[in-house]
Design goal:
alpha/beta, 11 helices, globular
Length: about 290
């Protein structure tokens, strides 16, 4: 068994390129190709479908990927536990994040990690709720920030509940709603609605479904800054989690929903928990509950 070959295989599966794998791991492309070919001979079946410069996992490769990543995870955990016994805090923590977390929380959490545990490296992968959940299930990350209300695989992980925040409506200062105390279901159904389609789509869809709301969707947009620009220009209203809404925009009014809706953010952690991941979880929980 060669852990180096397993590391190469895991990274190639992640980036879908032998060239990129070589660049990331500081190897030559021929060394990467040789390692994969050697594994394929050892296993007696192909791991990748090769098509010019592109590669794609075979079904057998997909079947082995999670197990191989588990082997690498346990090997890294062994090293961390040995370091901990020797009074050292070393290791790597791969974290799945979505954009509002990477903007509002992660810089401060990493700063605190670097202050207390400078030898623990934090690696970030950013996506939406579904992507973070998939990375957790595929053992591509050690832990990930999730929306507890919409995550379907909570039973598979340890969950640290971090913060519950409201969903709020944003309207233009030119909107007829801008002086309202609350936004009603009728308001949402009658006004042009700008639907976020990336990070918080699931939150809003759940709110609509639970309350049988039929919004008048005028635009669908992945970019939050674009949504705010549209709202500022009175092209419609939108609903977003509190954390996403920028402070100090005079041209936008933030109004609570009459039917209150929240999202609960948690940190999902693969088990068993390595010493480095445990330190990251402790720092994260302490920072969120004492600062935000």
């Amino acid at each position: 068994m060669s852990l180096v070959k397993y590391e190469i295989f895991s990274k190639a599966a992640e980036v879908n390129s032998f060239t990129k794998t070589a660049d990331v791991l500081g190897l030559t492309q021929s060394a990467v190709s040789h390692a994969i070919t050697s594994l394929e001979k050892e296993f007696n079946f192909p791991l990748f479908i090769r098509n010019n410069s592109a590669i794609k996992l075979t079904q057998n490769g997909k079947d082995l990927l999670v197990t191989i990543r588990e082997i690498l995870y346990y090997n890294d955990m062994l090293k961390q536990e040995v370091n901990a016994i020797n009074g050292l805090n070393k290791g790597t923590v791969k974290v799945g994040v979505f954009s509002s977390i990477s903007t509002n929380w992660i810089p401060y959490i990493i700063k605190e990690m670097e202050r207390k545990y400078p030898d623990i490296e934090i690696q970030l992968i950013e996506g939406n709720y579904a992507e973070v959940e998939k990375w957790l299930l595929d053992s591509e990350v050690d832990c990930g920030f999730v929306n507890i209300k919409t995550t379907t695989a909570l039973h598979s992980f340890d969950i640290v509940q971090l913060k519950t925040e409201p969903l709020l409506c944003v309207v233009s200062d030119q909107s007829p709603f801008h002086r309202k105390k609350y936004i009603s279901v009728e308001d949402i159904e009658n006004a042009p609605f700008i639907m976020p389609t990336f990070q918080c789509f699931d939150d809003i869809q759940l709110f609509f479904k639970e309350n049988n709301i039929q919004p008048n969707i005028r635009f669908e947009n992945m970019n939050e800054n674009s949504i705010f620009s549209m709202v500022e220009n009175n092209l419609g209203i939108s609903i977003l989690p509190e954390m996403i809404i920028p402070k100090g925009l005079d041209s936008i009014k933030v109004i609570p929903l009459e039917l209150q809706q929240t999202r609960t953010i948690g940190l999902a952690i693969r088990t068993p928990i390595s010493p480095a991941v445990k330190k990251f979880a402790e720092i994260t929980e302490h920072w969120v509950k004492n600062v935000t």
